[in-house]
Amino acid sequence: MTMDINLWNPSGHLSVLAILITALLLGMVHGITPDEHTWPITFSYSVGSYSSRGGRKMGFLFSLAFTFQRALASELAFLALSQFEFANRWGYEVYFVVGIVMWLSGLYILNRGTAWHLFDFGHRHAHAQTAEPAQEPRPLPRYMPLVHGFIAGWGVGAFAVIIYTVLAPQMPTVWVGWVPGALFGLGTMLMQVVLGGLFGAWMSRRHLPESVRVYVARKMSGRTLAGGGIGFIIVALLGILFPTVISNLAVVTPLHIHNLHNLGVGFFLAVILLFSVATWAFWKSVREGAHLSERQIAKSHA
């Protein structure tokens, strides 16, 4: 057994302490680096909270469910029941489900249509679908980051492979097979809480009148979720149809840090697509917010 901590390619027979430390540190790296399973969702929810505290809460709720999923999958890996996760198309199927949930969440915030009520537990009333969206965007139910976190956790990447094939199988008994996944999730949670707070603080510091800040934040959140969801769905369908081709589209960098070494479709979804959609959503939402503010001022002077 060895106590050497190797976050790039842990191998050999590790001590339990080395396994636990490696899992926690890998989770922290996963949480802070651009990742399609975390950044798009945390960012979209956090800007909608329009505060640092709200952003931290969104990051916590999302990664809480993510942690539960990783602990569950880690236990399955110990029992050698999670091999289905490594099927060539599995990651893209997760993208598809994540994209659908993002898209529906965005439509719900933007007050468009009635499809969301398939997920709106406890609400049986229907809303008539109209051609024009309602003026005021809606906040998401508080449980949605939990739902999204659990779904996103089933995605497969370098971190998941290490947890499921190297760390979890070396745990001493079935009773602790879940621990590496749980520690990985906790490491991710720590970083996602920090990032969520930063995203929320960024939104709160935009020079917007208080009367329109909530409107702009929710509109931006809804548009980012909806637009990002469509991107996830398109990439998922391409990946399911052409898994080898899509998986080989990558740029290799000299950085031996997971998520920064092989810049493939995940980096495209997490960074390029996310921030392109977010920039457009912010610009459009601020313009609408300015018009709303002008109308409010004119109404108060009438």
TrEMBL record:
Residue intervals passing through the bilayer: 12-32, 90-110, 146-167, 179-203, 224-251, 263-283
Name by which UniProt lists this protein: Urease accessory protein UreH-like transmembrane domain-containing protein
Keyword Amino-acid biosynthesis among UniProt keywords: no
Keywords of this entry: Membrane, Transmembrane, Transmembrane helix
